[in-house]
Structures are given as structure tokens and as C-alpha cells.
Amino acid sequence: MPIDNTNSMNQTQLVEKYWETLITHTPNKNRILANEADIKRVFSRSPFVADVCAKHPEWLVELLDFAAPSMPQSYYHQKVSKYVSQAKTEDELAKALRRCRQFHMAAITFSDVLNRQSIDASLLQVSSLANALIQQGYTWLYSSLCSKHGTPVGSHGPMPMYILGMGKLGGHELNFSSDIDLIFTYPEKGETQGGKKSLEHQQFFTRLAQKLIQALNKVTVDGQVYRVDMRLRPFGESGPLVLHFDAMEDYYQEQGRHWERFAMVKARVINSDDSSYEAALQAILTPFTFRRYLDFTTLDALRNMKKLIATEIRRRKLNNNIKLGAGGIREVEFFAQSFQLIHGGREPSLQSKSLLTTLKALEENEIVENEVVEALKQDYLFLRKVEHTLQQYRDQQTQTLPEDEDQRQALIEVMGFPNYAQFLTHLDAVMARIHGHFNELIEESQDAHDPQDSLFSACCDAWQLQMVEHEFCQTFASYLPPEDASRVQHLLLDFNQNQRRYLLGQRGEDTLNKLIPEILYVLITHNAQGVPYILKRVLGVISAITGRTTYLDLLLENPDVLKQLVRLCERSEWVANEIKRFPLLLDELLTPLYLEQQDTDIVASKNDYISELRQSLLRVEPDDVEAMMDTWRQFKLCQQLRIAASDISGSLPIANVSDKLTVLAEVVLEQVVHAAWHQISERFGVPNHLTADNSGFAVVAYGKLGGYELGYGSDLDLVFLHNAPREATTTGAKSIEAQQFYIKLAQRIMHLLNTKTLFGQLYETDLRLRPSGNAGLLCCHLDGFKRYQQEEAWTWEHQALVRARGVCGDKTLLTQFADVRAEILGQPRDKAALRDDVCKMRTKMRQHLLNEKAQKVDLKQCVGGITDIEFMTQYWVLANASTIPSITRYTDNLRILNEAAQHGVIDDKQAKMLQDAYLALREQYHHLTLADTKYADQTDQLAKLREQVTGYWTGIFSEICK
Q: What is the DSSP code string of 258-298?
């Protein structure tokens, strides 16, 4: 019973159209007519219910008769079981789950939009229905798999796969149109018993998990049950779909992060059976989540999470979002869960999954005042009712206030307001109260000025009063030389003139009037020798954020952030420009980790980046490519700033700066490859030669990335490889040759990396080192790569191969590449011919790339510079690898030099000198980048260092490079 041309109708016309069609087709016309007013009200407030009734007019009488169940969990368990019991196939199961969900969600909406039940009753019904749908779907699929493969059996008998419901599902507080966050786990490893074809437990439960996700998540003609999100599981998207208990325990003990503890507060076993198995699971999760003794890292983590929430509000401009905006639902949840993490280990009543129960326990334990708890409870329920009403309008997941007039009208009718303006006034008051309580959590003290502080008074006068130059200089006579004071005045006048172009509004203007004196004060207090040039950089940043009052507030309300900004602007023009281009980097100054001694372990750094990026991506819908691209770029910018700031502050040794920049690029690259694979395989399927967990694709890094020597702003030299047989094709409905699949994959990766968004380019990439350069295929078969290296490659391409290594992709293919690299580098070579080739290439490079500047030095291309050391290192590898295979083991110059010395290719003194020279030149080169310049000043120390390097160069190439 479809309704045509709905787009051209207003809501009143649409309701009448639905009504006429319904009356025509319903078998219970008298009953329907008796309830005409209520039905039309429901249709106008929820087109979702109108659509359901149009498709299933036979349901309408049942919807009218629906009464809120007194015991929702058993009620929905019984109702869903009745639907599912009729299913004989997986397709029939999917249909049964969807039809059941449609009917009962429409019934709940019918009662809600007529205000026949409370919002907390509705939340419990929606959650209980979800529980029943998930559990019944799981039970059916578990039985089906057991009939084929036997039953998984452990030390306490048959084993289930436990389903952990996270977030609001775990707390019985699910949104009306929500996705569901799940984690799957099972007790013990082993094999199934009693089936025709037994499986390892891991295989059995992985198949079960895949089938359950498909039964719930897949969109069919009957719709969808729930969007299923598995990213909260251990290791995120890169981890197995299901883990056994021992693996889960190891993960949470060794790698569990604070945010995972936070998420685990609401974790609930959906298919609870009160068995010994479940007790063992709780024994793993409870100690991880609730610590008996509070440690300071918990408080720090809560502070950081609180800052993350405030940061997201600023960055995403979530003004109209009742969940994520300031004073939204999330802040109430954070309020309650913070106390749970702090006190839950000692007070079991605070280990509840339910937010409302937790608030009550906070009051009963006298942790939070009665008035605060009651206000939060009422305000929270008000927001949840608004959220429910927004989502019940079209059964869509949204927490954003509507722009559409019809939906606004529906919202105020359900919420009981005479007009939208009064609703907004009440909503603003609710969210302001919540935000006030949120801001009081884990407060940090702020600096204040002494009223007698004459310098601060002078700084206020400098910005607020109109003074002639003589007066201005006299005001700062005790603090600045006259010429500096004069330059400061001109900078402030120019800045003030430029700000008149912006429509700041009163609040923005007030904030700026308070902030500029603070900036002057910090500058003069900490940098009396260089105030004008630092002020110019800082005002450049302020100009960039003038239109974004939240960032002005951030600097004003956080004196430490302002001091860090001034310090970084003093030390680095590049950092100042980065913050100016991307103001989101100001948030990084809230937690100045770079002032502490950094972890220099490259593996630990990489694991930290993986975890942080995973946490950032959890807030992004997996199919929202644009948001994902922005998140990658924000992450890279923020981490790069931390590294640069650590470099500047001296808390990170120079040898480790490149390590961190390198593994940062690797982690981002892995995510990009994963996303590109998902996007291309969705269109074309996957190559049919692949087995489980293999992609047949690998990314090889050359140059700085390959050699663990990435710098600020370095591009990525990449080569893409695959292993597809010539006859391989893809498995999708739109099948293509596997080679074309991999070329499209490479193109997609390049697009994701190179595209410029509001947050800039992720990385600039260079593929010219692939076989045949720009004339070659974007993605080359490994055999073709090997053949090219053996038969066609020039010496300089073998030099480049010295610094090549696989960075992500198919593990088998990466191992095969490493074998090919070792074989090519290990070929016997005529040393005289090799010296001649290396020297000629170096001379050619210098002619093309060296820019001679009087009194300035190009550290990379100059005689005795960085490239000379790299070429010597590459020469020693190519000249000796046939007799010393281990010299090819490493791709970075420092460790290659160690190997060369260890095997007598060079002596220890030579190795030490070249390593020290290389580190010194790279350190200076990094700092030139931070200073936003290319060329170094000529100094006696630099001249001596270059002379030593040149001496070793001449010792090898003296007869050739004349």
C-alpha cells in the first residue's frame, strides 16, 4: 500500500493521504474511525509509524491495543521467540527479526508520541526489545551451526559465545534509532564435538559472529534490525572478531587503555546464563574496570577525556546537538561514569550499568548532593525524551535539532510546549545546568593576577587605551627597550585595525579584550629579549582564530596553554604557521606531554599511535569517508605538533624524532590501506586467489620512510606490490581482473593520502621509484618487480633499494619482498664500476639540486653533507652484501654503519664519526624546517664537520669524482 508523491506534500496533506489510504484498506474500519484523532496525531508526529501502517494496515488495531508491558524483558523475549521459531533458513530468520522489530518499535512510538508512558519506561522497552532480538538471533544461529559442526565444549560443559552489549545497550538505555556496540568472547580454545565436520572453537565462533552481525546489520527489503559496530573490541578493526577468555584477559591486562575502562563500565552480558563460564568472564572484566585503589593515572585520564569532549565540541561546532553538544547527554554520562571509575572499586553499588541507578547510588553514598542528582536526573530524562522524539519521527539516528518546520512542530507537541522558541529557552536552561556540573568535575586551578601587578596594568592599558608612541614607550619603560615597545605598539595597532573586518559579537570582543593583555604579559614576563618578533607570530595565530570564540576562550581560560603557545611561537616559525593554518592544534597544548621525557621505544610509540588513532576513529561512522579523511589529518597534525614541541623543548632526543615521525606515518598508512581495501572490495569483491586473512597486497617504503628518517613535511616514497595470478578475478557482482583491482586499490590509497581537505594533505606521495618509474604500473606483481631489479634497474635504483622495507600489507608478501631485496642487494658487483656509477649519480644530483647561496649552506646537497653520507653507506652495502649478507638487514644509515664497522668494512672510528656527523646534520636540518627555512648559516663547527665527511668521501671516490 505505497503512498506516492510524498515529497510534494506538507505534513497535514501527507497525514490525510495516509488516512484515506488506510481507511480504504483496513479490515477494522469502525475501530479505526473511533480512534481517528489519535491516529492522525501519531502520523503527524511520526511519519515512521505512518509508513509502517501503510505497509502493514493489519497491524494498526494491535498498535492501538498495545499497553506497556510490566516486565519488558520477559515480554519481548516471548514475542521475539514466537517470530523466530517459525524460521527454517537464515533468510527467514532475517525476515522474522526485521518484521518483529518494525512492529514493536512502531508500538513503542505510538505510546511515546501520545505521551502514554514515561521516557524511562520507553528506554527500558527499546533496550529489552534489542536484547531479545540479539539473543534470539544468536540462539537460532548457534543451534544451526552446532547441527553442522558439533557443539563447542569446555571444562564446564557446552560453551556459549558471550555477547557484551556496550554503551546505552549495556545500561538498558538504548536510543530509539541506535546502532549497537558489541564485543564477542568465548571461554576456551578447543574443537567442537559431535558434528559431522568439527571446527576449532575460534573458527566456529568467528562464523557464528559473522552470521549474527549479518542477521542484524544487513539491509534487506524488510529493512535492518540494527547497525552493528564492533570497533570497541580488543585491537579494534584489526583484531579478531571473537577472542577466547585468556586472550581477552591478556589484552586488558597488558594493553587496555583508560578509555576502554570507561567503555567497560556499561558492558553487560546480553545472553547471561549465570554459569561458571560467565563468572570467569566477570572475573576478568571487573578488576580491569573498577580498581580497588584509586591511582592518579585515573584522574589524569578523566581530565584528558573531559578535555577531549570539550575539544570535539569546539572542532565540530556541535551547538544544536543534544547528545554531543555542551550540556548534552554525553556530559551527564561522563559525570556519572567518572564517579564510577573513581569510587566503583570500593563501592559495589556504583558498578551499575544504568545511569539512573548510578545517580541514585551517588546520592545514597553522599558523594553527590541530592539537589545535583535530582536536577541531573530530570534534565537527563528531558534530553532523552527529546532524543527519542527526534529519532521516532523517521526512525533515523539523529541528535541534532531539526530545521524542518513540520518536525519542529511534532517535537514541541510531544514535548508539551506552545511554540519552538519556548522549547529552545527551556532546552538551553537544561543544557546550561548540565554543562555547569560537567565543568565542575575534576577542576584545575587557574592563575589570577595580583591587583597591584603594575606590568599587567600596563598590558591592559596598551590594548585598551589610545596612546601616542611616546606614552606607549614610557608605559613599558621598565620592561622593554624603546625600539621594542614602538614595534609592539605598531603590531597591536595593525592587529586591531585588521580585527574590525570580523563580526566578533559582544562575547568575542570581550574575550579578545581580556586575552591580548594576557598575551603581552606572558611575552614580557618570559621573553623580554624578543617580544616584537614573537608577538608577530602569536598575533598571526590569534588572527586565524578570531572568528572562533571557543578558541579564544581556550587560551583565556587556560594560562598554561597560552604560555605553551608563546613558547612554541618563540622557538619555531613552522609550528606557529601550522597552528595558524590549523587552529585545532591549540587543543594539543592542553596536555603538554612533550614537556615530559618521551618514550623513545619505537615499538611502544607505534602501539600508542595505533591506540590513539583507533580511539579517534571510534567517533566516526565507518562509511563516512570524508569524516574519516579529516580524522586522519587531524590526528597526524596533532601528533606531528607533539613531536615538534618535544623536539623544541629538548625532551625528545634527535635520534628519536625521525623514529616517531616514521611510525606515525606507518600507522596512518595502515589505516588508509585498510579503508581503501574496504571501499574497493565493496564495489568489486576481493581477488579470488586469496585465502583467509591475506590481501595479496603490500606497501613498500623507500627513502626517508624506508630508512626510519622521516622529517617534518617529508613526502612518502612508496611502491605497491601484489601477488595475483594472471587469471585471477574478483568475487563481486561487478567482477574485474585482480590486477585491475590492485591498481584501483593503489589509486584509492593515493587519493586518500593526497587529497587536500580543510585539514590539508595527509601526505604527499611519490611513486617514481616503482619499476619503470612514471611509465610503470601503479601496482606491480612481485615477480615483475624482481625481474625488473635483476634485468633493467640502474645502480641508483639498487641504491634506493638499500633503504626499502615493507611497511604494511600481506605478511607473506612482505616476507617475499624482503627475500627479493636481499637477493638483489647481494648480487656480486664490480667495485670499480660501482664506484663510478655512485659518483656520477652524486655529481648529477648536486648539479640539479644544489642551490648555492652566499654564506648559506644546503645541508642535504652540499659537499660533505647528508646525501654524501647516505651515498657512502649505500655504496658499502652494494659493494659488500655478496660476502656480508647481514649488511642488508637494516635500512637506516646508523645501523648500516654499525654493521659495516662490525664486519671490518670500515673502522670503528670512521663509523662513529659518520654517525655523529649524520645525527648533527639531521638535527640541524630538522630545526631549519621548524624555523621555516632551508639553508643553514656557515659556521666553523659546520665547516669542520663537512671537512671530515669530505675526507672519507675522497678516500673512496677520489680518482673518479674530481
A: HHHHHHHTT-EETT----HHHHHHHHHHHHHHS-SS--HHH
